[in-house]
């Protein structure tokens, strides 16, 4: 396995793990509260839709001219990567609340308990639809990542295998603890995924536009750590700015209190 293929597999593995954790929280909430059977039907239906989507779009992407494919793939990876990276940076800097799987589980459980009881052919409609929607929405992002990474390298099988391993690991962990995976370092994983997706997106997008990277694929060894360091620097700067602003507010409050006294 080449370095690029390893990076592909690792990026897909981490991205799919994060999405699987979020989908698992929803399925656990409706399954434990409403109906496991109906929830599993919803999960199965969503997986079937995603499988059809990947099977249909995979050949279409791989048949595109290489440069056009790289531009499309690079653009999509940048859209997803920068979105993940922006949120991870804001959360690390304390400017955005961390994603709390325990709180999400509690909210989903409360919503499931208060929802109307309605069955269709013996299937709990709420449990089915919520599981279907949760897995489908989280899975769509996974499908895009699998397709874009896999199609560009003509290794959709490798990307799909990495996604499968990630999902299997998360499901096994969820079955073992029977609770949302709240201790998973989700923001750190999203930060890493954001860096990887943005780096590959920049690399492939530029190649598709006609640029030639010094050293070829080895340029990723500079792009990835460079973007990671720049992002960490942004986190440090935002934390400093936040602390300075808080200190100024405290000083202003003390000054105002002194004037009133």
How is this structure best described in words?
With 261 residues, the chain is an all-alpha fold. The chain has one domain. 82% of the residues lie in helices and 2% in strands. The chain has 8 helices and 2 strands. It has helices spanning 3-33, 36-62, 66-92, 101-114, 125-153, 156-177, 186-208, 220-260, and strands at residues 119-120, 123-124. It has a two-stranded antiparallel sheet. The longest helix has 41 residues, at 220-260. The protein is flat, with a radius of gyration of 22 Å.
Task: Name the features.
261 residues; mainly alpha; two-stranded antiparallel ribbon; 8 helices; 82% helix
Query: Distance N terminus to C terminus?
Result: 72 Å
Our estimate of the beta-strand percent is under 5%
Q: What is the residue-mean pLDDT, rounded to a whole number?
A: 85
Order of helices and strands: HHHHEEHHHH
How many structural units, i.e. domains? 1
Q: Please report the total strand number as a whole number.
A: 2
Rounded Rg: 22 Å
Q: State the helicity in percent bands.
A: over 70%
User: Count the helices. How many?
Assistant: 8
Structural class: mainly alpha
Please outline the major beta sheet. 2 strands, antiparallel
Low-confidence stretches at least 5 residues in length (pLDDT < 50)? none
Q: How does the overall form come out from the CA principal axes?
A: flat
Tell me the strand order in the biggest sheet: 1-2
């Amino acid at each position: 396995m080449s370095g690029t293929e390893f990076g592909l597999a690792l990026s897909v593995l981490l991205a799919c793990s994060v999405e699987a954790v979020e989908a698992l929280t929803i399925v656990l909430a409706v399954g434990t509260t409403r109906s496991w059977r109906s929830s599993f039907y919803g999960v199965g239906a969503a997986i079937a839709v995603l499988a059809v989507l990947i099977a249909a779009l995979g050949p279409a992407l791989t048949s595109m001219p290489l440069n056009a494919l790289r531009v499309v793939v690079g653009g999509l990876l940048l859209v997803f990567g920068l979105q993940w990276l922006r949120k991870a940076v804001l959360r690390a800097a304390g400017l955005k609340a961390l994603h709390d799987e325990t709180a999400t589980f509690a909210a989903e459980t409360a919503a499931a308990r208060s929802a109307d009881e309605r069955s269709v052919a013996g299937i709990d409609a709420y449990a089915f639809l919520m599981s279907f929607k949760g897995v489908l929405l989280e899975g769509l992002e996974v499908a895009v990542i699998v397709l874009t990474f896999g199609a560009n390298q003509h290794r959709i099988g490798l990307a799909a295998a990495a996604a499968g391993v990630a999902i299997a690991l998360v499901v096994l962990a969820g079955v073992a603890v029977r609770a949302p995976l709240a201790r998973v370092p989700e923001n750190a994983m999203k930060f890493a995924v954001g860096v990887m997706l943005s780096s590959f997106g920049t690399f492939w997008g530029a190649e598709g536009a006609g640029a030639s990277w010094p050293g070829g694929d080895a340029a990723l060894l500079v792009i990835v750590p460079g973007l990671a360091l720049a992002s960490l620097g942004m986190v440090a700067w935002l934390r400093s700015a936040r602390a300075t602003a808080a200190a100024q507010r405290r000083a202003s409050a003390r000054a105002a209190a002194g004037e009133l006294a």
